[in-house]
Amino acid sequence: MATATETGLDQLDARGPTGPFRARNRQTITDVTGGPVAELSIVPALFIDRTVAALRAAAPLPREERVNALRRAGELFASAELCGLDVGDYQRRVSRVSGLALSVVEQATERIVSACGAALDQALAALPAGAVLDWSDARTQTGAALWVRRGEVFAVLAAGNHPAVNTHWLEAVALGYRVVVRPSRREPFTAARLIAAIHEAGLGQQVAFLPTDHAGADAIIAAADRSMVYGGDDVMRKYRGHPSVLPQGPGRSKILITADTDWRPQVELIAESVSRHGGVSCTSTTAVFVEGDAAAFAEALAAQLQELPARTPLDATAALPVFTAEDARRMGDHLARLAEGTVPLRGAASVVADLGDGSAALRAAVHLLPSSSSAQAGAELPFPCVWVAPWTRDDGVKPLADSLVLTVMTDDDELVDELIAQPGIRNLYVGSQPTYWTAPGVPHDGYLADFLMESKGVIKL
C-alpha cells in the first residue's frame, strides 16, 4: 500500500473492499520541517460511489467473528508491517508529520490496540436496559426492544490532531456497520495502518480508506447512512441539526475552582490538563475559572508551564507540538491579535520556539482575562493555550457552558447539581480530576452508539 515511485516518495494508496487503489491525483504529505514524506492518493467521487455501493452490498459478519477480527487487527496494528512500515517506523512518521511528541504517538498506539479489543464492549455500554441484541432472543416471545442499526454504512471525516481519534469509529465496525474513513491529509498514516490491519484480520469487505478532497468528502456524506465529521466551528454550523451527521467540534474543556478549594496544591494537575497530548486534544484544558485570586493562580500556572521543553518531536523529552516555522509564526500572530485586552503571563512574544530545521515548537501560553464573560475564554488553539478568568457566583454557570469536559473543584453540592443540569456541559468531573481523564464505558461526547443504533419493538410468537 506504500511503495516508492519515480518521485522517490512512498505512495500511500486508498483502500477499497478489494484492496489498495492508487489514484492519478496525489498530494504530497510533508513533515514539520516542510520536507516531503509521502504521496497520498486522492480518490474521485466515482470511486467513492462504487466503494460505498460495494460496502453496502456486503453483509456484516456475525458478531463474534467481528469481535475476534477486531482483536486480531489490534495485534497486527501493534506488531505487523503494514502500508510498508513496521510499528516503529509508523510511529516516527506520524510524529514527524503531526508534530506530536513520539511518546504521545506511542501512547496513542496503545490506546488504539486496546480500543480494537474493547470496541464491542464500549458500544454495548449504551445498550438500553430493556433491549436485546437478536430477534431470536427468548425475551422477544413476550415482546422486547431490539437494538438495531440505523443504517448500514457509516462515514467518518477524521481529524488529524491526534492518532487516537481513530478509536471511536471502531465501535461502528463492532456493531456491524461498514465504515468509510476519509483521513485528515495532515496525518493520514494512522487511519491507513488501522484499516490495513482490519483488512488483514478478515474484515476487508467492511472498511475502506478514502482520502479525497472537499468535493469527495461531500460525496462520502451523501452516500453514507450516518456520518461523523470532525472540524471547527464552521463544521458545527454546517451540520448542526443535520439528522444523519454527528459533528465533532472544538472541546473547549474547562476547570472551575471555587473559593472553598485551595488551588495551590492543584497547579501541577491543572498544568498537566493544559499540556497533556501537547495541548491538542479536545479534552485539553483551555480555560480556568477561579473564584478568588485569579491573578495569583495565573502566575503560578504560567510558572509551572514554562518548564515544558521545546524539542523536535522525535526527541525523547519532547512535550510541545511542533509545526513548520511559518505555521508557528502565523499562529503566534493570531494569538497576539486574539489576546488583545488580556494580561499575558506567557503571551505571543514567547510562544514560538524556532528549532533551527525549518520547524518550531509552540510553547504554552497563559493569559489573564478581565472577566468570566470575555470572548477569549471560548478560544481553542492547537497547542497548550489557557485563559484564566475570575469567576463569582453572580456570574452563574453560563460562562462554563459549551464544554466537552468541565472539572469543578468544589465542596458545593448545589453548584454541582446546577452544572449537571446544563446541556452544554457534556462531561462533569468533580474534584481533582484532569479534563483528559477517560475510562472504558464512560461516554466521550455522549455514546456514539446512541447515534448509530435505535430500539425497535419486536414480538415473536
What would you note in describing this structure?
33% of the residues lie in helices and 23% in strands. By secondary structure, it is α/β, with parallel strands linked by helices. It has two domains: 7-127 and 146-249, Aldehyde Dehydrogenase, Chain A, domain 1, CATH 3.40.605; 253-430, Aldehyde Dehydrogenase, Chain A, domain 2, CATH 3.40.309. α2 (63-79) packs antiparallel against α4 (102-124), α3 (87-98) crosses α4 (102-124) and α9 crosses α10. The longest helix has 23 residues, at 102-124. The termini are far apart.
Label this structure with key terms.
alpha/beta; 2 domains; seven-stranded mixed β-sheet; five-stranded parallel β-sheet
Write a brief caption for the model.
This protein has 14 helices and 24 strands.
- Give the C-level CATH assignment of the largest domain: Alpha Beta
Task: Report the major sheet.
Answer: 7 strands, mixed
User: Pairing-aware structural class of the strands and helices?
Assistant: alpha/beta
First-to-last CA distance: 51 Å
The neighbouring-strand order within the major sheet is 17-20-21-15-14-22-23
Quote the average pLDDT.
95
List the helices and strands and how they pair.
Blueprint (H helix, E strand, L loop, with lengths): L1 E3 L5 E3 L1 E3 L2 E3 L4 E5 L5 E6 L3 H13 L5 H17 L7 H12 L3 H23 L6 E2 L11 E6 L3 E5 L12 H5 L3 E5 L6 H15 L3 E3 L4 H10 L2 E5 L2 H7 L5 E4 L4 E5 L9 H9 L9 E6 L3 H12 L16 E3 H14 L4 E4 L1 H4 E3 L4 E4 L2 E4 L16 E6 L12 E7 L3 H8 L4 E6 L17 H5 E6 L3
